[in-house]
Amino acid sequence: MSVEFIGYVSHQESSEIHLPEGAAVNPPWIATVAQAHEYGGFDRVLIAHSSASPDGLQIASFVAHQTQRLGILLAHRPGFIAPTLAARQLATLDHFSAGRAAVHIISGGDDVEQQRDGDWLTHDERYRRTDEYLDIVKRAWTSNAPFDHEGAFYRVAGHRSQVRPLQQPHLPVYFGGSSEAAIAVAGKHADVFALWGESLDAVRETIARVRAAAAVHGRAQQIRFSLSLRPILAPTEDAAWARAESILARAQEVVARSPNFTRRPKDPQNEGSKRLLAEAAKGKVVDTRLWTGITALTRAAGNSTALVGTPQQVADALLEYRKLGVSTFLIRGFDPLEDALAYGRDLLPLVRAAVAKEEAALRAA
């Protein structure tokens, strides 16, 4: 099991310590951050999705044009376009990116967020729809003959696509969601199951649940795992913790003013955020260096837990998660551009060197 690093490219500069300013779509910013990740040695970048954000597919195409090697992980929410059309769009992106595309399926854990785009299905109905949606998408990617489909959410007659993904048999499918309904669908469809940054014990428990769901479909050993974290690095441990507290102080004003956070419900519906808040309830620091300060402040607004320490200490913490079965780390900073460069310079080489050493020892044995 090797290691993969995924960064994050937003449509404009913003974070918990940076109020969004200027144009909602900032092409120079997007290009600069994407190229910084490529320069830093990241494998992919995530392009996120929300009911208010610019169109991710167009951003993904732009990122592909601005880079040569960097992979793209496009967040995609089933239910708003036909699955056959989504299959063609994603396959076309794979061609324009020379086989660098992957899709991150986000079914949606918040009723209010879904309803902003006109989706009134319940939580569990959304995951049943996702299951059917992915059945059709994968069939459109792989079928050699026209096919029909009649299900609870979709009817298709005689579909056949002229475009297939360059990657065979299909694009890598990443999958998010921590509820029982989500894990059941992930067990069937996910190549990579994505977790937010929880404690070692919580990650171990989730991996076991997902593998059990995948075992139903004979996929227990095929599914891989991704963990999302916000590393905070400094030359010394004391300086890293001081930087974390500085970030928290700056974030208090930004979170109170930014529309990215003021629109969030006080009590999140989605299971992933509830799990992060349970970690935050244990204290500001969980395990050795998992910091929950921003999680508590934002009421777990997405990927918000941080690993705090020197580059070597954070690398060692990542390797502890790797021992549990995590092979992908989705990391992004509170200073998006500067932190991406710092990770590429100071953190990624340490983790990759440790993994290479381990792999060499296994080959020798």
From TrEMBL:
This is Alkanesulfonate monooxygenase. Residues 25-327 form the Luciferase-like domain. It is an enzyme of class 1 (oxidoreductase). Transmembrane segments: none annotated. InterPro entries: Luciferase-like_dom, Luciferase-like_sf, SsuD_RutA_monooxygenase. GO terms for biological process: alkanesulfonate catabolic process. The keyword Kinase does not apply. Its EC number is 1.14.14.5. The keyword Membrane does not apply. Keywords: Flavoprotein, FMN, Monooxygenase, Oxidoreductase. It holds the Pfam family Bac_luciferase. GO terms for molecular function: alkanesulfonate monooxygenase activity.
